[in-house]
Amino acid sequence: MQQSIIATVDIVLLTLQQQRLSVTLIKRDNPPFQTMAALPGGYIHAQEDNNCLDAALRILSTKTGIVPPYLEQLQTFAGIARDPRGWSMSVVYFALVASEVITAAQHDGLVVCAVDDLWHLPFDHNDIIAAAVARIRNKSYYSSLPCYLAGPMFTLPGLQKIYEACLGESLNKVSFRRKMDELNVLEPVSGQTEAHGAHRPAQLYRLKAQFKNQLQLLSRGL
Amino acid sequence: MQQSIIATVDIVLLTLQQQRLSVTLIKRDNPPFQTMAALPGGYIHAQEDNNCLDAALRILSTKTGIVPPYLEQLQTFAGIARDPRGWSMSVVYFALVASEVITAAQHDGLVVCAVDDLWHLPFDHNDIIAAAVARIRNKSYYSSLPCYLAGPMFTLPGLQKIYEACLGESLNKVSFRRKMDELNVLEPVSGQTEAHGAHRPAQLYRLKAQFKNQLQLLSRGL
Asked: What end-to-end distance do the CA atoms of chain A give, in Å?
């Protein structure tokens, strides 16, 4: 016979704030750690959720009002030591959204904080965020993942800055553009440019419709 | 209040058999799917296992007698549809061992089958194995992971064949050796060579002690 195990889902919802990779925290309504900021999360509802992804989308929507375009399972954090209530397992998902999406959600109690400036968070949430950042950093080398951090329209120099914020390093402009061509997820928005001081206005791009909810991978990295 | 959720761990234990990536199945002792071959797995014991990795090692040791050098969390498979007993979550780990390790375990009811030749397995075990193979294939491009499939001593041509079996493609000998140098996980075994017909005997290598339980990654892939 199985002892009772707490089954939860937590979501690492990342965005860019002042060009820095940042995580969305929410004030906890209930004990333990009531009123402290932590990752949005909650119990799996076996009678309501068909699977963990369902649970993640339900919890994120209820607690933050946000429906991300792309949600990926990160890892399961589990054990006796991570939750004062008992043996718990949390299936963790991560999502990336443009900062406007979080602003527009207008939910009370949302806090966006740069991942490099975090204080000590409840449970093992610091470890969870570190694992999510490592995954994103790695995956940014060979996928369209950082594009989800951009708004609906962006310039190529703007997108390069987003990739650089994810990777934590500078990229060569020529090879970045070659890789974006190879990914083949972007299309120019006809007649839309962005003025940049004395420079020639930059063409605006957007994600092609079929890649708004689907990641594209490179066979070789950036 | 939370409804009851079944919390289990399953292990995808992979090896090479006739140069083909193969998975270890075990005859199930209990319902559901009693007597059918499936992945080794079992309930998490909250009073015994400190975390999921503990549970995976306990289950693998009890059911197969095998203690793998390296065990990595793959993904959690969960939901209402995958287990006839109810809403279940399985935290899945994968491990790679040399085929001699499975032979030496001498446990009854172990079946080793090429991953490309599998029949329909219980639960979502076919999906789980497919996900493990995809992870291994991807990770073999940039890590020492396939080395765990080799025995205690191996030649470089032998190790290249192992990498090729994981990747499902042929590799260039010169670039393979350069990447192995870069990984820097191997050492020649002094005075040990393997005869190959009319060819010059090949030097035997082994994993350096510090990499027997620890994966090494390349910054750029094979």
From this structure: 50
Collect all residues of chain A within an 8 Å Cβ-Cβ radius of residue B43. Answer: 2
- Give the tokens for residue A189: 């928005």
**ipTM rounded to 2 decimals:** 0.89
For residues A197 and A96, give the distance between their C-alpha atoms in angstroms, rounded to a whole number: 30
CB contact residues (below 8 A), chain B span 35-94, against chain A: 43-47, 49-52, 54, 73, 75-76, 78-81, 86-87, 89, 91
In this structure, the number of other CB atoms found within 10 A of the CB of residue B195 comes to: 9
B18-45 burial code (b ≥16 CB/10 A, e <16): eeebbbbbbebeeeebeebbbbbbbbbb
C-alpha–C-alpha distance, residues A104 and A102, integer Å: 5
For chain B, give every domain's residue range.
6-140, 145-211
Residues 6+ apart with CB under 8 A from B138: none
Identify the CA nearest to A133 among candidates A166, A98, A102, A93.
Answer: A166
B192: left (phi over 0), alpha (psi -120 to 50) or beta: beta
Q: Which CATH architecture has domain A6-140?
A: Alpha-Beta Complex (3.90)
Grouped pLDDT means (10 residues each) for chain A, 222 residues = 82 96 95 95 96 97 93 97 95 96 87 95 97 94 93 95 94 94 94 83 94 84 61
Token duo for residue B168: 């499902």
Domain A145-211 -> CATH class: mainly alpha
Q: With an 8 Å Cβ cutoff, are A46 and B2 in contact?
A: yes
Choose among A137, A121, A103, A156: nearest CA to A25.
Answer: A121
Tell me, yes or no, if B4 comes closer than 8 A to chain A by beta carbon.
yes
